[in-house]
Amino acid sequence: MFQPPSPIYPVAGIRTIEARVAPLAQPSLMERAGRAAAEEAVRLTQDRAGQVLIVCGPGNNGGDGLVMARRLLQAGRAVTVAFAEDPRTLPPDAKAAFTAWRAAGGETVSDFPGAPANGWALVVDALFGIGLRRPVEGRYARWIDTMNAQQAPRLAIDIPSGLDADTGAILGTVFQATATLTFIALKPGLLTLDGPDCAGTVHVHRLDIDPAAWVSPPGFEIRPAMMREFLQPRRQNTHKGSYGDVGIIGGAPGMTGAALLAGRAALKLGSGRVYVGLVDDHALPVDNTQPELMLKRPEQVLEQASVLALGPGLGTSAAALALLERAVRSDRPLLLDADALNLLAETPHLKAQVAAREAPTVLTPHPGEAGRLLGIGTAVVQADRVASALELSTRFRADVVIKGGGSVLATTTGQWFINTTGHPGMASAGMGDVLTGLIASLLAQGWPARSALLAAVHLHGAAADRLAREGIGPIGLTASEVAEAARGVFNGWIVKAARGR
Ligand SMILES: NC(=O)C1=CN([C@@H]2O[C@H](COP(=O)(O)OP(=O)(O)OC[C@H]3O[C@@H](n4cnc5c(N)ncnc54)[C@H](O)[C@@H]3O)[C@@H](O)[C@H]2O)[C@@H](O)CC1
Ligand SMILES: Nc1ncnc2c1ncn2[C@@H]1O[C@H](COP(=O)(O)OP(=O)(O)O)[C@@H](O)[C@H]1O
Ligand SMILES: [K+]
């Protein structure tokens, strides 16, 4: 069976849920969070005797740490709590947690303690959670660096301190967790930009709340279960005309491979026919490695394909722009990638035409291309990947993915998604071209644009993950290998979906 999709809430959503639930919650949410954290600590230290170090900060994240400390102490564990604030300045729940900790016989140290001779069994970061507001500096920056230097498993409570829960940006310095126990729901910052490098293995503890019952989830982690209705075995009574004609247009001189990679990926995911229109007049008339591809003039492809994908190796020549102009005016589903996006960014009247299209449009920029489309720098895009994807989707009335670790998707329905498959071995030339081919293939097979985009992005990463598990990569993985593996993963999904019905 497929796992159900997990909702993702930015800080504002979590705060609203907390405000609605907290007045009714018995035991309090902080008691539940601290107890869950203590249980997680017991699991993580099953085969590690010795002391647990819990480093507590000035807010409710520190309060969670103090409840956790009390629970562990009561369970007979040796605990050291580092806490440098005046307890009278704590928010009410955290103050109560401090009082209960002292009443249970617990003590705190206000300087970072030296490690016991055999090291800490576990180092717990309860410094800052979703209330982090500015870069960490001074004492707490030094404490984070010291925690990171310990030879022990490192557990972050709710979110690694120093990570922006909404964006995944590092604010000053960041706790390097081996595991993160996050409360109520996932936060975007755990899944994109620097989040995955800092959070380790992420577990969600819902604190016995169903967040969706209180606030409708604004975002989701992508899971194959979302695509179940389209993951159907094929009917016997079908033929190649039933599975669409993908048209890939690109491959300017020196960049033929990009268009061929996209074409091969489309073929391996099951399109009936794949046409490749190479902009290079001197290109070979056949792909000898994949002779099933039909190499044609780009103008022919524009006429014959049922779905158009422009961009892989397209270049930015006048001829490329003319092809893009025609494709945008077509009444077929259209995917724009790479140089098609760069041309679009420079051509104001085309932007308006894309937004006015009746057929679906899919845009697949990496952060640099997204910046050009929005007229802002790459750093501004990366500073808030979710907001940037939503803005692109609204401006172009398109389904959009901003690629890169923790790809962020925004759809014309106003929803957003984060993809968690894939790995840095995919940071190699041609990977984006394969993604283009996968999306175009599903579009040609009749999938709605939103589902085609979600499925292909997830599949692309899942294929790379499977290869890495089999010892192919992660480093040195090639785009062609991913296209090949995507076929196997996709057929596996169809079998799984049929079993679950
Ligand atoms: N509010 C609730 O109902 C619940 C909150 N919980 C915990 O509470 C956390 C949120 O608590 P808070 O809102 O108190 O926020 P935090 O505990 O994350 O931090 C806020 C405190 O840190 C200070 N601060 C922020 N950035 C700083 C910086 N760079 N340097 C120094 N000080 C800085 C703030 O002035 C404030 O005192 C969650 O992450 C979670 O761990 C859980 O107990 C579950 C329930
Ligand atoms: N660190 C990473 N983790 C996960 N996926 C990645 C990572 N780096 C790159 N990718 C994926 O590989 C693909 C690269 O696409 P792109 O940047 O357009 O490259 P290309 O030059 O191959 O067109 C995207 O789908 C991207 O999300
Ligand atoms: K934390």
UniProtKB/TrEMBL annotation:
Keywords, comma-separated and alphabetical: ATP-binding, Isomerase, Lyase, Metal-binding, Multifunctional enzyme, NAD, NADP, Nucleotide-binding, Potassium
Residues that, per the record, bind (6S)-NADPHX: 60-64, 129-135, 140, 158, 258, 313, 366, 433
UniProt: K(+) binding residues: 61, 125, 161
Binding site for AMP: 403-407, 432
Cofactor note: Binds 1 potassium ion per subunit.
Cofactor(s) needed: Mg(2+); K(+)
Domain (YjeF C-terminal): residue spans on this chain: 223-493
YjeF N-terminal domain residues: 9-215
Catalysis: reaction(s): (6R)-NADHX = (6S)-NADHX; (6S)-NADPHX + ADP = AMP + phosphate + NADPH + H(+); (6S)-NADHX + ADP = AMP + phosphate + NADH + H(+); (6R)-NADPHX = (6S)-NADPHX
Enzyme Commission number(s) from the entry: 4.2.1.136, 5.1.99.6
HAMAP family: NADHX_dehydratase, NADHX_epimerase
Quaternary structure annotation from Swiss-Prot or TrEMBL: Homotetramer.
Protein name per the record: Bifunctional NAD(P)H-hydrate repair enzyme
Classification lineage: Bacteria, Pseudomonadati, Pseudomonadota, Betaproteobacteria, Rhodocyclales
